[in-house]
Amino acid sequence: MKDFIKYWQSDCDEKELEITKVYVSPENRGKGKGKKLVESAIDYARENGYETVSLYAYAQEEGGLTTEQLIDWYSSMGFESDGDDSSLMTYTL
Known about the structure:
Elements: E1 4-9, E2 16-23, H1 33-47, E3 52-56, H2 67-76, E4 80-81, E5 88-92
Parallel strand pairs: 2-3
Antiparallel strand pairs: 1-2, 3-5, 4-5
């Protein structure tokens, strides 16, 4: 399977872009591909008038990052965790 990112306008807020899936194939992990995909979604949001980008950071498959590692990874890109649910993360443009 090829690397991809899936996102759309939030059902709850028209100024929020919601990332629903980021997939990086095992052979491409650790090479910056995931970061480039997330940055492309942030760029798209910025160019199209969104105010925030949100996502749930949780591990979906074995062999990848744990949920805690994903939270740290997204935090390193500027996403902030919600106080009640650390896996709900938001990037403010």
